[in-house]
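Quick one, tokens below. Sequence please?
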């Protein structure tokens, strides 16, 4: 039992989790989002892009069982731990973090429902509208929303083509976001 808890298997699982989460974070930090597509380069804008990429990963793993399901759960837990850590780095007090975490979790799950519905229906216009509402709530029209929606569709197809065994081994790749 101790070998399982503290041994190589646990370290290998942690390495897989870190590799997958690292790819999700790297995809969310691609500069075209912020420099070309008008995503605000703020903590909230970065949360939106990280949430979007976490959603895309979770959407890919949806319906899978066994190791894939376990990995999906571990990564969503890692995502929320990362958000918690980021709030603390921003200077939010220990008392204020749970309240904000609840709000951010509600935001995340609301977005996943809207994005998933749009993707399942193949409705690019609805996806662009949902992205506008969530990423740029400060504006009614966001011309770059279409480019981001196209990117989301491209990512969904790309992730769907990646074998589960590859993902379970910690190998995941997101396509590059290119300026429009």
């Amino acid at each position: 039992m101790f070998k399982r808890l503290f041994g190589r298997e646990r370290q290998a699982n942690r390495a897989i989790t870190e590799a997958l989460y690292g790819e999700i974070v790297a995809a969310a930090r691609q500069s075209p989002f912020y420099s070309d597509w008008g995503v605000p380069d703020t903590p909230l804008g970065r949360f939106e892009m990280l949430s979007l990429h976490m959603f895309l990963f979770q959407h890919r793993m949806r319906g899978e069982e066994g190791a894939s399901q376990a990995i999906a759960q571990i990564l969503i837990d890692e995502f929320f731990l990362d958000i918690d850590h980021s709030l603390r780095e921003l200077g939010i007090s220990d008392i204020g973090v749970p309240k904000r975490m609840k709000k951010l979790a509600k935001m995340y799950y609301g977005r996943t429902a809207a994005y998933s519905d749009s993707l399942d229906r193949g409705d690019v216009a609805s996806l662009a509208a949902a992205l506008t509402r969530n990423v740029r709530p400060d504006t009614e029209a966001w011309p770059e929303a279409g480019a981001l929606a196209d990117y989301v569709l491209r990512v969904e197809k790309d992730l769907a083509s990646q074998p589960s065994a590859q993902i379970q081994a910690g190998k995941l790749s997101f396509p590059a976001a290119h300026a429009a």
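Residues 60 and 159 are 6 Å apart (CA to CA). The chain has nine helices and no strands.
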